[in-house]
Amino acid sequence: MKITNVEPLVVGAGWRSWIFVKIQTDDGLTGWGECSDARGPEGIAGTIRDLAPVILGQDPQAYEARFADMARSLRSSTGGIAAKAMAGIEGALLDIAGQALGVSVTRLLGGPTRDRIRLYWSHCGSPRVRRLHEVVGADPIETWDDVTALGKEVVARGYTALKTNILMPGQGATWYSGFDGSMSADDEWVSNKTLAHIETLVGTLRDAVGPDVDLNLDLNFHFKPEACIRIAQALEPYRLQWLEIDNPDPDALVRIGDATRTRICTGETLIHTRGYLPYLQKHAADVFMIDVPWNGVAQAKKVADLAGVFQHNVAPHNQASHLATFMSAALCGVLTNVRIMETDVDDVLWKDQLTTAVPDIVDGYMAIPDAPGWGIAINEDVAREHPWTDLNRSMAKNLPPSKSF
Asked: What is the pLDDT of residue 401?
């Protein structure tokens, strides 16, 4: 079996892009991978095209060899856009390998270790406060009563955990995303007013969901360690599952963790075992997040196994299409140290039409896929109906949509 075609496909999914890789073989198999990134799709798609000559004519089932070939060809640019492009290609190769053998990727990589994985509702409320509620077909969040209603909705829909951002209800409601330029890149401090607002937000959600539902708050790269410590200490009474913090310095995360009883999660932007190792060696967080479409499933498994050596749980970072969800769930089906998996509930209304299958979710748990390969493919007609446009770019910058989407 030989690779005959490698093609990137960029889809405009509201306020972010979904990036897919289609690989075809000379015996008629087609594999799909995903490497979605909200803010650099053209660069990733271009890198996929640049990598195509490296793997064309090669055996797709030898995915480790193909990954090594790509890594060598990009050894002077090993992270960021390059890593995501390689991950998308690796995903399509794994899909082909599973299909060729008639087994799921979970079984291909040594599983299953479980038949389902617990989910948390991610970005809970975030689209609804950015005037994107029409995009996801939900009521807007404008008041604290709306936040309470959101928490109750999470419970009513069967989820036992949620993660939110710093929602800012009110007129022209928004959120601190950490990516939209709402604070200077060098400031990143927390005022008393903002700290009180965060306490109100988490307290309102805790009252709404009750004592047993897990709460997570995502701070991204938005605050420096001193601010993170103040926030973490203020939130101790609410018993978060974790406070999510990204920081390029593992020692800074150690400082935060040593100063609070609140559990810390990090890692969504780290790449491959080399990127995670200094954080794991210092036990810089309690839980380590792995972005599967940015690392690749086979590479993510290596990261998770390394985390297990250092006695840490992992949690897949999953904020893209159903294909990414199937890929992340396949990884969860192999691991013995996974805590919970992320999923976006609020999303573009045509999301289910984009793929040939949808996640099997019951009471906040997703069944581990067991069909050959990923058990899911992209509906290309639907994908091409939603290209990446200037409207998507403006929404990715946290600006309101200029029309219904």
From this structure: 41
Q: Specify which residues 244 forms β-bridges with.
A: 218, 265
> Alpha-carbon distance 219 to 163, whole Å?
11
Residue 137: the pLDDT is 93
Question: Which of the 8 DSSP states describes residue 354?
Answer: H
10-residue mean pLDDT series, the chain (405 residues): 98 94 98 93 96 98 97 88 97 98 98 97 92 89 95 98 91 56 65 93 98 96 95 98 97 98 97 97 98 97 98 97 98 98 97 98 98 98 92 67 36
pLDDT score of 402: 37
CA distance 197 to 167: 9
Which segments of 79-120 does DSSP mark as H helices, in order? 80-101, 105-108
Can you spell out the DSSP letters for 212-264? SSEEEEE-TT-S-HHHHHHHHHHTGGG--SEEE---S-HHHHHHHHHT-SS-E
Cα 263 to its chain centre, rounded Å, is 19
Grouping H, G, I as helix, E, B as strand and the rest as coil, residue 62 is coil
Dig out the tokens for 243 from the structure. Answer: 């406070």
The β-bridge partners of 366 are 117, 361
The tally of CA atoms less than 13 A away on the side-chain side of residue 54 is 20
Distance CA 221, CA 191 (A): 16
Using DSSP, state whether 369 is helix, strand or coil: coil
The answer to whether 37 and 295 are in contact (CB under 8 A) is no
Q: Taking the complete model, does pTM exceed 0.70, yes or no? A: yes
Which residues sit opposite 338 in a β-bridge?
314
CA distances from 71 to 3, 168, 224 (A): 18, 42, 33
CA 162 – CA 215 distance, rounded (Å): 5
**CA separation, residue 202 to residues 40, 205, 207 (Å):** 32, 5, 9
**Helix or strand holding residue 199 (H, E):** helix 192-209
Residue type at position 106: T
- End-to-end, the C-alpha distance of the chain in Å comes to 42
Q: Spell out where 277-399 has E strands.
A: 287-291, 313-317, 341-344, 361-362, 365-367
